[in-house]
């Protein structure tokens, strides 16, 4: 950013500044002269090379007030730590006021400097405004506090000043005073309100990583199942998300919310389960979730809320890797629609869904196309992507064509708190640098009203959120800025000189491209979506499956997976495996080989539904691979029958078959949806055809008749033999009944045989049923656990 003209028009007393610098030089002259009398002291430049001014680490932990006015006392506290190997003696901590910064580039340069430079760091204030430390051993730290009235600093014109805290001392190897450590910060000086104030829009993101799985309970409430219970730590007092809500409630910010986070926390307020290996244990953090949602509901009521598409999809990954995978882009529009309804239902506010936010505000033409395909007409970019070659910071909003507005956030302000803010020294420096940049923006063009946007990191830590809040509170006096919101910033009049050109694809940062989701991720999502589309058409309560899995697929393309390749792949796999497990609950029961005896029969195939809801719109197709030997439905090679099964039940579907020749016939059974797509795996079995002709039947009948006659003859011979044995035994007793005498014309030996011929059917065995009961033919409803296959050698119905 070229800002060479910053502050040039605001300097009001160059003569005064020259006099002050000359006085500083004269004050330093006696000290320099004194050093010349020390015989062992080398030249200053040589001394700095021999013992750098970073021997002692100086940390500035607090600076108050952050934006002083006349009459204030500036108080700075911190710590000095001896990082060298020698003891420092006769040490003194001093405050040094450097020069006023001429532009924003100088502010960044000061923040990067480390070593002491006599000409640039100013003279030590000295006197009562210093702290003496007689001895500082190696590795030892000492605290200090400096308190200086503002009028003693010699501040003249409004602007941003360099402020340094240094430690001067001696060591055994260099027994003369020299600066052994220094830390610099920035001091905004604007005691009176400016005529034109910069409008500052600060985005306050509520975004988290994925915690909710696609799995739900089988109860009516569909109890959600979480991948882990780590979100509770973020919601609990002192947690990252709890701090963001508590701090944001007191600040003039624009809330940027991922609706998936709201839905996840809302699910935690009721019964939920957590995965622990293969087990599911009850979740126990309902109270924490309720408290967080209640606090957020109150915090956002008077503020603007922007809802990102559901689960915050990675727009750059979609543009660079996913757009060539069929169906990937179709998720964006539904994700935007469900985002609006989710926020409105849970937070009771109507959010804006007109904004898209690519990672780090980095854009190229393909990202803009993807971002606007979901209905957004405003894209949050950053000025290290869309660069302005201007000597000042223009308004954030500018048209980029096609009815799309780019809201270009300020990169320096947006990245100000990305470091380790748990260290007080880092936080203090970051806050002062942020305030310095905002004042510098206002003083670049004092007569021009401008609107800037700050888009911080997506998931700031609790410490980073605290530092952000400290900086925003410091601006509350509104001496050079005033708060605004994102909708107002997007509607501000664009600067005519600001660039409206979107950078080409080659300028997209390579470090960001390396962290994008791979093409394989979008291919896996397509497989899952295709499976879901094929599954939902047979369900009578499709929403119980479509909603959790649709949201899970959205989570699979979340920005939060960047740089987390293995967890992202594991989540995608878990979603796909669970969906396949559900689809396999509707399946064909395996059959053993069948035997068909005769010209016609019925072939049963059992379909099982172990889901808790009914299934319909299914068709069972049975195919004969040898239709010349075995045909279905009176002459076709294949036959289809509709299938509708109640939840937890089975159904036996029977096909009519006719045989033309003996031999084995492989059969294939396959379920299809009504639109002709295969459902599940095919099942194969063999029908053994064994046809019985009329001639064979006559031979068999004749054989049975001969066997019957032979049995009758054997019976009469045994009876005659018994009668002869009785006659040979003698006359019967008086009490015995006399044997009936045969009538005239009767032939005793021939009578039994004649009786048999007179009633030939009396000795004929009972005829077999034409349709015997088949033990392998399952009943139409076998219940939820009827999964046993048919028995070996089963016969079909005829």
UniProtKB/TrEMBL annotation:
Pfam families the record matches: DUF6049
Transmembrane segments: 692-712
Keywords: Membrane, Transmembrane, Transmembrane helix
Region (Disordered): 724-798
Bias (Acidic residues): 736-760
The protein's name: DUF6049 family protein
Naturally occurring in which organism (per UniProt): Streptomyces lavendulocolor
Lineage: Bacteria, Bacillati, Actinomycetota, Actinomycetes, Kitasatosporales
């Amino acid at each position: 950013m070229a800002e060479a003209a910053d502050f040039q028009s605001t300097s009001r007393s160059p003569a005064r500044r020259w006099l002050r610098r000359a006085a500083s030089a004269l004050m330093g002259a006696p000290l320099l002269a004194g050093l010349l009398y020390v015989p062992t002291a080398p030249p200053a430049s040589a001394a700095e090379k021999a013992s750098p001014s970073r021997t002692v680490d100086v940390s500035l932990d607090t600076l108050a007030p952050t934006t002083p006015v006349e009459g204030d006392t500036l108080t700075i506290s911190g710590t000095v730590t001896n990082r060298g190997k020698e003891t420092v003696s006769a040490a003194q901590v001093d405050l040094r006021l450097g020069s006023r910064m001429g532009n924003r580039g100088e502010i960044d340069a000061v923040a990067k400097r480390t070593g002491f430079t006599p000409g640039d760091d100013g003279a030590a204030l000295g006197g009562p405004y210093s702290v003496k430390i007689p001895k500082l051993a190696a590795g030892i730290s000492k605290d200090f506090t400096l308190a200086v009235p503002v009028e003693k600093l010699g501040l003249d014109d409004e602007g941003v000043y360099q402020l340094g805290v240094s430690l001067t001392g001696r060591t055994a190897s260099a027994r003369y005073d020299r600066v052994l450590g220094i830390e610099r910060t920035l001091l905004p000086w604007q005691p009176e309100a400016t005529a034109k104030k910069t409008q500052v829009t600060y985005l306050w993101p509520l975004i988290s990583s994925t915690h909710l799985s696609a799995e739900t309970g089988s109860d009516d409430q569909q109890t959600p199942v979480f991948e882990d219970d780590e979100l509770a730590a973020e919601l609990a007092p002192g947690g990252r998300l709890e701090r963001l809500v508590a701090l944001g409630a007191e600040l003039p910010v624009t809330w940027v919310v991922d609706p998936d986070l709201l839905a996840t926390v809302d699910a935690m307020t009721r019964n939920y389960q957590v995965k622990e290996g293969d087990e599911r244990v009850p979740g126990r953090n309902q109270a924490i979730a309720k408290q967080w949602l209640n606090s957020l509901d109150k915090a956002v009521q008077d503020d603007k809320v922007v809802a990102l598409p559901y689960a915050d999809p990675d727009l750059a990954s979609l543009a660079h890797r996913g757009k060539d995978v069929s169906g990937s882009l179709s998720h964006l529009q539904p994700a935007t629609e469900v985002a609006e309804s989710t926020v409105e239902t849970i937070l009771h506010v109507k959010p804006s869904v007109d904004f898209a936010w690519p990672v780090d505000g980095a854009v190229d033409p393909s990202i803009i196309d993807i971002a606007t395909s979901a209905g957004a007409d405003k894209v949050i970019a950053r000025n290290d992507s869309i660069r302005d070659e201007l000597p000042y910071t223009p308004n954030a909003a500018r048209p980029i064509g096609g009815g799309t507005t780019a809201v270009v956030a300020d990169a320096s302000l947006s990245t100000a708190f990305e470091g380790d803010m748990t260290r007080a020294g880092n936080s203090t420096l970051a806050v002062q640098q942020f305030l310095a940049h905002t004042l510098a923006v206002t003083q670049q063009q004092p007569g021009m009203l401008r609107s800037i946007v700050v888009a911080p990191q997506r998931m700031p830590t609790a410490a980073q959120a605290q530092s952000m809040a400290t900086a925003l509170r410091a601006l509350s006096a509104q001496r050079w800025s005033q708060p605004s919101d994102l909708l107002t910033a997007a509607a501000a009049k664009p600067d005519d000189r600001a660039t409206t050109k979107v950078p080409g694809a080659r300028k997209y940062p390579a470090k960001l491209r390396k962290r994008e989701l791979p093409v394989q991720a979008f291919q896996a999502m397509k497989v899952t979506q295709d499976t879901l589309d094929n599954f939902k058409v047979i369900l009578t309560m499709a929403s119980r499956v479509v909603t959790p899995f649709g949201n899970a697929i959205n989570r699979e393309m979340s920005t939060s997976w960047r740089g987390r390749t293995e967890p992202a792949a594991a989540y995608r796999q878990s979603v796909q495996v669970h969906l396949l497990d559900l689809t396999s609950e509707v399946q064909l029961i395996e059959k053993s080989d069948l035997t068909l005896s005769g010209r016609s029969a019925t072939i049963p195939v059992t379909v099982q539904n172990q889901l808790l809801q009914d299934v319909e719109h299914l068709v069972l197709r049975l195919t004969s691979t040898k239709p010349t030997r075995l045909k279905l439905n009176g002459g076709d090679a294949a036959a289809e029958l509709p299938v509708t099964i109640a939840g937890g039940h089975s159904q036996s579907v029977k096909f009519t078959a006719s045989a033309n020749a003996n031999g084995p016939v492989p059969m294939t059974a396959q379920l299809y949806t009504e639109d002709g797509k295969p459902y599940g795996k095919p099942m194969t079995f063999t029908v053994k055809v064994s046809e019985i002709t009329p001639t064979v039947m006559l031979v068999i009948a004749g054989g049975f008749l001969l066997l019957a006659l032979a049995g009758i003859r054997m019976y009469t011979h045994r009876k005659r033999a018994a009668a002869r044995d009785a006659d040979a035994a003698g006359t019967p007793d008086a009490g015995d009944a006399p044997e009936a005498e045969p009538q005239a014309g009767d032939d005793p030996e021939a009578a039994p045989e004649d009786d048999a011929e007179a009633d030939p059917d009396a000795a004929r065995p009972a005829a077999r049923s034409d349709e015997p009961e088949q033990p392998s033919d399952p009943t139409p409803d076998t219940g939820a656990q009827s999964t046993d296959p048919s028995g070996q050698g089963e016969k079909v119905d005829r």
